[in-house]
Structure formats: C-alpha cells, structure tokens
Amino acid sequence: LQRILGEHPASERKTVVRHDRLLGLLLPFRAFGDVRFKWSPDMLSRLYDTRPDVLSAISESVRTLPPHYLTPPYLSAQPEVTRHLMKPADKFLVLATDGLWELMHRQMVVQLVGDHVAGQETSGLLCFNV
C-alpha cells in the first residue's frame, strides 16, 4: 500500500486505492499482465486500435479506462518477496493467487488442505464451495 501511495500524487490519495482495491477494481497491487493498469491511455488506445486480432477476446469493459486513471502505471510486475520460516507445528503452506481468496475464505482453504493432508477426500467439498 505504501508503494502505490508513494508513487502517485497526494491528489490521488483517495482514488488510487478504494475499498482495498487498486482504483477500486483490482485486488493485487503487483501482477504480470493486466496492462490496462500499467500503460498510458495513449499506448492502450494504440494497442486497441492496431491489434484488434489480439484483443478480440477482450470485453468492452476492459477496453475502457478505469475511473480516476490519471498517472499510470498503477500496477507493478516487481514481486514482493517475503520469507516464512516453517516451524515444526506448521503442516503446510498455501501459495495462491487473489482469485482463490475471492472465492474461498481462508478458514475453508485451511480446512480443505488440512483434510487432504490427513488423507480425507476433499474434492467433493472443493467443487461444492467453488
């Protein structure tokens, strides 16, 4: 959060992160792809105009600039690396994209993985929850 706020003018402080999302839309602040949060409006317009073959699968809502899109780039592909020292009591580590956390609560993820590690069948529960 500090990175994104520090990279944009104070006048954007209320719009750059809204509802814990980048420009009120995107959950991660770092990602590969999602060029509409990285490139200038001019660059995006040229891409949309010159490569309709590449962009034919992209919906019109994605071609529209996000609200308050004033000083791109907003999204970075530079990873944030953290370390976690596994302790003997730790049974597993979940590495996931934001999509998992949008679909499932962390307690459900832990339950599913824990049940799987314990040898219990979890695929039915997973399909039911997703």
Automatic annotation (TrEMBL):
The record's listing under Pfam families reads: PP2C
Q: Which PROSITE patterns does the record cross-reference, listed alphabetically?
A: PPM_2
Q: Which residues form a coiled coil?
A: none
Family matches, as SUPFAM superfamilies: PP2C-like
Which intervals hold domain PPM-type phosphatase? 1-130
* Gene Ontology cellular component list: mitochondrion
Q: One GO molecular function term?
A: [pyruvate dehydrogenase (acetyl-transferring)]-phosphatase activity
Tree of life domain: Eukaryota
Gene3D superfamilies with a match to the protein in the record:
PPM-type phosphatase domain (3.60.40.10)
User: InterPro entries annotated for this entry?
Assistant: PP2C, PPM-type-like_dom_sf, PPM-type_phosphatase-like_dom
User: Do you know which PANTHER family this protein is assigned to?
Assistant: PROTEIN PHOSPHATASE 2C, SI:CH211-15P9.2 PROTEIN
Q: What is this protein identified as?
A: PDP1
- This protein's species is Poeciliopsis prolifica (blackstripe livebearer)
